[in-house]
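Researcher: I'd like a candidate sequence for this fold, 570 residues long. If you have to choose between options at a position, lean toward the conservative one.
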């Protein structure tokens, strides 16, 4: 199967000697990368796809049907393994448990992907007519022209805007009879990395909390304790530093859950004592405990129930965490326990004045017995689990596991209508209107392996960004258009080989760059600080009545309601 990954490229050309006709301008173009991968021939059957689209059950889709598409047992197993991984990564004595085989679900072949950058185009991706011309140019470079083409599907991938523009292009040309002219052969695929970045921004925007808050369940509170500055824009965070902070906080909260499970103040010392006595628990025992912790802290139903009512009588029907100390309500303005207000005696009426009827006192607020902090912590751990699973599965090439996270993100993104529409369109297309072979081929087109090693897979869109960064200095130095002969014919077609050749030359004379796989800096101060903070706040214990604010971080539940209120029909 053939796949084209494309993205917009641009740079600002600043003129040093301004004249009419020599103004500062933004130079825009489109860069594209072509690669091939092996699929079943039935995946490229255009006639079968046409019949399935005509008889599509898309109009009958409901939120309940979308939920049945999610493999919740698989997600539970992922959560269990993440609890075990937190132990194996941070507890030296528990590192013996790290030798388990990773779960695989539609694994991409571990082999080097043949990658061929195509000549860039000077067209504007945001303009549909220009996008069509750019696609015709890319197809011609691949040997496909009008009247001389293979009647097989080819895959096109990009970020959210690229994916949407491909759908719009197919819609505009759908009345053409020829499959090439109508772009019926094009199968748009939403790529992974930009989707992961969007979800990471959602997590930070939802769970960061207000400035200077003392809620231990918020991400901002944990970041403040270890000296991390808040992002400049929570709606668009830097991916890698933010993903590292998310992983660290998530691991520490899982270790805090393990501390509560083993009833210890210091989980490191606990395992050290067990190791010296040669009494470390069996892997099966830890796996059973991890499954119990997942159901107590991460499963959405359990955390929601504790947020409503955390008392023993309300949670006796489900696995539950132990009770903590009695919670004293905190005044939001003074951070001190709320003191009962003094009641004054009513004043005597003045002589000669009619006594006025006293106003009835307002009804007292209903007693709150839930633990909103415990519930918010569980919601954060669920969101972090899905985000980290998508990143790990992408690196391993397990695109089936990535697909499960995308189906959850569809329901978890109620405030990002664009990506909700993109994910909904892609899920309906692959689950309802494609055979299994076309679905698998579409998922395999999300990743590539430039080096051919295990664990070296990359999302196609982030690899295209890497190639864009390689060609940007050449175009900026020349201040040339991306469609000019110098860039179009020479540089863009050979940019990957030029970059590889430069790397080999440096290696040959002993000037190779330091390996990118450097040792990870230790996080012992951060680990100690966060675990101490969570232990003192009793974050992983139930404390009925605990609440700091009225924020709602249940995006999964909000997304379910949003889709059920008519968004699907639109």
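Model: Candidate sequence:
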């Amino acid at each position: 199967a053939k796949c084209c990954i494309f993205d917009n490229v641009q740079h600002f050309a600043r003129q040093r000697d301004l004249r009419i006709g020599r103004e500062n301008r933004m130079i825009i173009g489109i860069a594209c990368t072509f690669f091939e991968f092996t699929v079943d021939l039935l995946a490229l059957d255009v006639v079968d796809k046409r019949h399935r689209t005509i008889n599509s059950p898309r109009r009958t889709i409901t939120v309940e049907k979308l939920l049945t598409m999610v493999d919740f047992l698989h997600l539970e197993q992922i959560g269990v393994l993440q609890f075990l991984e937190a132990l194996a990564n941070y507890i030296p004595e528990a590192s013996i448990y790290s030798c388990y085989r990773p779960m695989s679900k539609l694994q991409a072949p571990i082999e080097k992907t043949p990658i061929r950058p195509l000549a860039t185009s000077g067209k504007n991706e945001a303009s549909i007519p220009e996008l069509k011309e750019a696609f015709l140019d890319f197809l011609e470079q691949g040997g496909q022209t009008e009247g001389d083409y293979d009647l097989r599907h080819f895959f096109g991938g990009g970020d959210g805007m690229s994916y949407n523009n491909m759908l719009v292009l197919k819609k505009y040309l759908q009345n053409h009879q020829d499959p090439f002219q109508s772009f019926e052969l094009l199968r748009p695929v939403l790529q992974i990395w930009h989707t992961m970045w969007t979800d990471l921004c959602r997590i930070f925007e939802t769970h960061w909390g207000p400035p200077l808050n003392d809620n231990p369940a918020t991400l901002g509170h944990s970041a403040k304790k270890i000296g991390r500055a808040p992002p400049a824009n929570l709606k668009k965070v830097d991916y890698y530093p933010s993903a590292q902070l998310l992983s660290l906080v998530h691991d520490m909260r899982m270790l805090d859950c393990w501390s509560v499970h083993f009833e210890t103040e210091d989980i490191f010392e606990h395992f050290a004592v067990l190791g010296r006595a040669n009494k470390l628990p069996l892997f099966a025992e830890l796996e059973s405990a991890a499954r119990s912790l997942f159901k107590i802290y991460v499963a959405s139903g359990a955390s929601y129930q504790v947020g409503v009512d955390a008392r023993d009588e309300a949670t006796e029907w489900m696995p539950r965490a132990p009770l903590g100390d009695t919670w004293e309500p905190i005044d939001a303005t003074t951070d001190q326990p709320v003191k009962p207000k003094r009641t004054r005696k009513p004043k005597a009426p003045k002589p000669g004045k009619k006594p006025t009827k006293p106003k009835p006192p307002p009804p007292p607020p209903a007693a709150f017995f839930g633990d909103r902090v415990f519930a918010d912590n569980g919601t954060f751990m669920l969101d972090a689990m899905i985000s980290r699973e998508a990143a790990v599965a992408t690196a391993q090439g397990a695109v089936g596991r990535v697909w499960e996270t995308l189906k959850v993100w569809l329901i978890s993104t109620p405030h990002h209508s664009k990506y909700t529409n993109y994910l909904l369109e892609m899920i309906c297309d692959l689950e309802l209107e494609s055979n299994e072979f076309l679905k698998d081929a579409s998922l395999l087109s999300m990743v590539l392996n430039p080096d051919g090693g295990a664990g070296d897979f990359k999302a196609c869109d982030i690899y295209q960004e890497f190639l864009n960064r390689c060609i940007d200095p050449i175009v900026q130095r020349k201040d040339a258009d991306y469609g000019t002969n110098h860039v179009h014919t020479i540089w863009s077609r050979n940019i990957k080989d030029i970059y590889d050749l430069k790397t080999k030359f440096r290696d040959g004379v002993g000037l190779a760059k330091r390996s990118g796989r450097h040792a990870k800096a230790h996080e012992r101060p951060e680990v100690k600080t966060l675990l101490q903070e969570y232990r003192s706040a009793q974050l992983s214990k139930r404390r009925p009545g605990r609440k700091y604010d009225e924020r709602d971080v249940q995006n999964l539940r909000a997304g379910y309601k949003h889709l059920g209120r008519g968004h699907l029909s639109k």
